[in-house]
Amino acid sequence: MAEVNTPPAEKVSPSIFSQITSMEHEQVMFCYDKATGLKSIIAVHNTVLGPALGGTRFWNYAKEEDALTDALRLSRGMTYKAAITGLHLGGGKAVIIGDSRKDKSEALFRRYGKFVNSLGGKYITAEDVGTSSADMEWISRETKFVTGLPEYLGGGGDPSPFTAYGVYMGMKAAASEVYGNDSLEGKKVMVQGVGHVGEYLVSHLAKESAVVFVADIYEDRIAEVSKKYKVNVVSTEKVYEADVDIYAPCALGATVNDDTIDHLKCHIIAGAANNQLKDEKIHGQILVDKGILYAPDYLINAGGLVNVGAEWETYNRERVKAQCERIYDRTIEIFEYAKKKNIPTYKAANEIAEERLRSIAAINSRK
Ligand code: NAD
After folding, report:
1. Which of 24, 122, 210, 285 is most buried, taking the most CB atoms under 10 A from its CB?
2. Is the pLDDT of residue 14 over 80?
3. What is the pLDDT of residues 243-273, one digit of tens each?
4. How close is the Cα of 5 to the center of ligand 1, in Å?
């Protein structure tokens, strides 16, 4: 597999095939249903390591092109996430275009489930931003290729606690690298987005007596988190200039970009959001130049994938937790590799993931 840098969101060509070929996707399916209003895109990036597992994002995209770009970038990220985590899964992702607070219905999710089923197991879905275990339950009426099911259906439940735990492990590994020890006590941490993962991350940080700052576009999320934990609330526009040690992006991707990067005062970026660097090559290098350590997103946010992946095989909660814990050592290894080769950490992670994909693809081609 050739090294392919994720094209920055606004620079990708409007031609669908040039996008697909530039990121080397295997298949992209556009799904429409008049009766339910479903508009969805399922992107299967790579199935060398196994079936493409990745969540379904429900988001009100400003333009349909943005939805496609998101599906393509996110599915590619899933390939790398599974590869670096040692999972036997490929990379895929889907988006449903709409407002998750208004447009959800049983019929819409079941129709979507039929589309997932039509791929015959090449793509397995799960929850993501804007979808939940309850939505997966509706999907499961129409296909067995769904994970992230509620525990009463034999599933692993919400993957977010595992994602948050892995991010916390990655953040501690980064602290150990930057500060010489991994304690987060007294460290100022900005959590951008206190949804499913963000709130669990806040709970770990609070337990360790970090000084937690939070921002969210929804007042009710801020109110909920402020009620449970001692946090400092920051307006969404002030996130990037906040005087903090660690910035944890836990909302949407591409927040490290030309407009924000100069404002960052943190020493570490470690969060749950996918595709945090708008342009890996450009922004990954600027972070190095600014002396900010970047804990690669797909490396440290893999806990949720570990959990839904385990559900697909034989689910064992303790094993999942142990695998999430390993993110700490894996992150240290990536930092070491990056230092040895004098490359940015995003590139170190990419190289290691690509090496695994290449070696398994070579075995497959000899069948
Ligand atoms: P979520 O929808 O529950 O939470 C996202 C939160 O971010 C919401 O509360 C939303 O209001 C807030 N938000 C959106 N835009 C914002 C902005 N501009 N500023 C501040 N807050 C903003 O989603 P989640 O499941 O917690 O996932 C968070 C991120 O982590 C996503 O990027 C997701 O792709 C990624 N991720 C999640 C998982 C998982 O297990 N849930 C796994 C891997 C990666």
Report:
1. 210
2. no
3. 999 999 999 889 999 999 999 999 999 999 9
4. 24
pLDDT per residue over 93-150, tens digit each?
999 999 999 999 999 999 999 999 999 999 999 999 899 999 999 999 999 999 999 9
Determine whether the shortest distance from the Cβ of 60 to ligand 1 is under 6 A. no
The fraction of the chain above a pLDDT of 70, given in percent, is 96
The residue nearest atom 33 of ligand 1, judged by CA position, is 273
This prediction's pTM? 0.91
Mutate to test the pocket of ligand 1, among 250, 259, 275, 307 (most ligand atoms within 8 A of CB): 250
Catalytic one of 39, 81, 93, 347: 93
Helix (H) or strand (E) holding 52: strand 52-53
Is the CB–ligand 1 distance for residue 236 below 6 Å? yes
The answer to whether the CB of 160 is under 6 A from ligand 1 is: yes
CB of 294 within 8 A of CB of 269? yes
d(CA 199, CA 313): 28
Atom of ligand 1 nearest to the CA of 160: 40
What confidence category does residue 21 fall into, taking pLDDT thresholds of 50, 70 and 90? confident
**Ligand 1 atom 4 nearest Cα:** 195
Active site residue 11: no
Q: Which residues contact 331 (CB under 8 A, 6 or more apart)?
A: 169, 170, 173, 174, 295, 299, 300
Scanning the chain, the segments in alpha helix (DSSP H) are 16-23, 64-85, 106-118, 133-139, 160-179, 196-207, 219-228, 280-290, 297-300, 303-312, 317-325, 327-341, 345-365
Domains observed in the chain? 24-76+89-153 (3.40.50.10860), 160-353 (3.40.50.720)
CB distance 159 to ligand 1 below 6 Å:
yes
| DSSP secondary structure, 267-308, as one string | SEE--S-SS-BSSHHHHHHHHHHHTPEE--HHHHTTHHHHHH
User: Which residue's CA is the nearest one to ligand 1's atom 41?
Assistant: 160
Whether ligand 1 lies within 6 angstroms of the CB of 195 is answered as yes
